[in-house]
Amino acid sequence: MSTPVLEIVDLRKSFDQNLVLHDVNLVVPEHTATVLIGASGSGKSTLLRCINLLEPIDDGLILLDGQEISDPAIDVDLIRRKLGIVFQSFNLFPHMTIRENITLAPIKVQRKSRDEANELADELLKRFDLLEKADEYPDRLSGGQQQRAAIIRSIAVNPRLLLLDEVTSALDPVLVNEVLSIVRDLKSDGMTMVLATHEMGFATQVADQVCFLESGLILERGTPEEVLRSPSHPKTKEFLKRVHEAGRL
Amino acid sequence: MSNTTPWSPSAREREREIYRKNLQARKRVIALISTVLVLGTFSAILLTSPGWDSVKATFFDLDYGKEVFPTVIRGLVVNIQLTLIGGVAIGIIALALALLKTTKSPALTPFRFIATAYIDIFRGAPLILIILLVGFGVPALRIQGLTNNVIVLGTIAVVLTYSAYVAEVIRSGILSVHQSQRAAARSLGLTSRQTMRYVVLPQAIRRVIPPLLNDFVSLLKDTGLVSILGVTDAVRAAQINASRTFNYTPYVVAAILFLLITIPLTRFIDRQIRLGSEKQNSEGLA
Lengths: 249, 286
Description:
The complex is a heterodimer of chains A (about 250) and B (about 290). Chain A has about 250 residues and is α/β, with parallel strands linked by helices. Chain A has nine helices and ten strands. In chain A, the strands form two sheets. In chain A, strands 6-7-8-3-9-10 form a six-stranded mixed beta sheet, with helices on both faces. In chain A, strands 2-1-4-5 form a four-stranded antiparallel beta sheet, covered by helices on one side. The mean pLDDT of chain A is about 90. With about 290 residues, chain B is mostly helical. Chain B has a domain at about 65-260: MetI-like (MetI-like fold, Orthogonal Bundle). Chain B has ten helices and no strands. Chain B has helices at about 10-50, 50-60, 60-100, 110-125, 125-140, 150-175, 180-185, 190-220, 235-245, 250-280. In chain B, helix 3 crosses helix 10, helix 5 (about 125-140) packs across helix 6 (about 150-175) and helix 9 packs antiparallel against helix 10. The radius of gyration of chain B is 27 Å and the shape is flat. Classes of the chains: A alpha/beta (about 250), B mainly alpha (about 290). The interface between A and B is medium-sized, with 27 and 24 residues.
């Protein structure tokens, strides 16, 4: 088997006395989607932030295409160019138009010309049906449109790995689908991704691998069929039952 | 919209309209009566006060005011020049101070300490003392090549003090930009310097434009303080005239001239801020 895009070995992370992740092992092969599920505070977001080097880890290894990126001597800016992350709260830059948001990194980081970057941005905006909003500022867009723009911004730099942190949690239910359909498109394009979500139905559709996190530990993992339809761990069963009761399955 | 289907208000709506108009008319009458009463009372107190005639003669002498007007205006030009030149210098120094104070770069550690000390000293000491210390202290050093020009020394003193004020305003703007904006920028691969330049600073500056412009107006007024060094600005020009004739009308002329600049300026500023926030009414703006 070829080198996985992402490999995590015995990762440990704490905030002060609070242990938020431990014994996390994960392999994400190319062109696959790994879905992290679990209650709020189970460590999903922290895991994504660790992978993106936004949080330093206490112990363990993170390998990107076989290269250790958890090495403190590594140039984090260089690594982050290969990773895209989309946040729950979009985090678009409010003082820039949508097109400027998307072209910032291609121009400043990848040193593309403005024309080239604009062309790329417009192509992506057109593909994801957002071209008419290119010159608007983020606050003039709906939540769903903002999140789509944020996803486009993160894929415009051609990341090796896309991290999606509960990208639909801040949206009202009607807008969730337009965002999820982008993720589905990216998946069928062959984008490798790790996503934290509460949308179990969606997880079933896109995931190649589902990991259930509980108190900073991956308690159960497998195909969506295994984990979501016939979970073996009692904690997973309990979590899915609560999700089901909340009407999200 | 309205020309697609002809619409005439219902009887109920017409009644409401009449009621609203009456209410408006009543509000206007009340406002008018209140204004006349209050202003009338104040003017009555002023005009019937025992010393009004002498105050009128010494502070509001129209002919004398016209006579001193050109000299005060010439002085005001000095204030304006000082404000504009000082304003540019203040902007540059304050931005550098704010960036130094917020930097985490280890190589800049000594500069961070210097910036902190600088801001502590010049923000804490009264401007008039700084003007006196610079204005009389620097020439006393008798260093070759250092200027004795009071206008230059006065400007330096004002710039020293205002840079500290403005640096703190800019720094508060930088700190007010949410951490998630930095995270988003860094995760796109921007370096910390690029993040500051393209993501944090533009939002920070926009947010602090109102306090910055207030500082600009204060700066214009405070340039009047350099008159204590003997700079013939508007305040000093008024003072010279007033002490010659014991008529204080020049002070009133100077005050009115300052107001003629500061009031339209603040109105303009408010308008710009409002227009800016309409164009881009985002979380990035207050």
